[in-house]
User: Fold this.
Amino acid sequence: MADQQAQDPVFQIQRVYLKDLSLEQPNSPAILLEQQQPTVDIQLGVDAQPVTDGIFEITVSATVQTKIGEKTVFLVEAKQAGIFEIRNLPEDQMGPILGIACPQIVYPYLRGNVADVIQRGGFPPVHLAEINFQAMFEQQQAQAAANQASPIITQ
Assistant:
C-alpha cells in the first residue's frame, strides 16, 4: 500500500507569489496633461525552472507599456510565480503540465496585480486578456520542432 502511494501522481500548489513588480512613469507629470489616446503594448512570457527534485517554479511575466508618440506614459513589468510539486507523472505529460496547467493557475494573480498597480499609479486599469495557454504552448512546440528540422548552415 505504501509502495502504491509512493508511485501515485502528485500535483500540488505549494505557493503563489508576486516575484517582481515595477511601475515607471518617466515623463510624468507633463505626459499626464496630454489629450491624445496612448498606444498600449503588452508582452507575455512563461518560464518553468526546476527548483529541486519534483519541485518547479513557474513564472508568468507581463510587460505593459503605454506611449503617446515616442514618449512613455507608463511601463509596468511584473512577474508572478508559483511553486508546484509535480511527481510521478509520465515524461510526455510534464511539458503540458508546466506549460499549460501551471501558468493557467498563476496568470489570474498576475492579471489582478497588473491592473491594481496601474490603477494605483493614477491610470485607468489595463486588464490583460484571457490567455489560451494550450495554444501558446502548442505554438512554442511547433516553433521548436521547425527550428530543429531545418539545420542552420554556416560557411
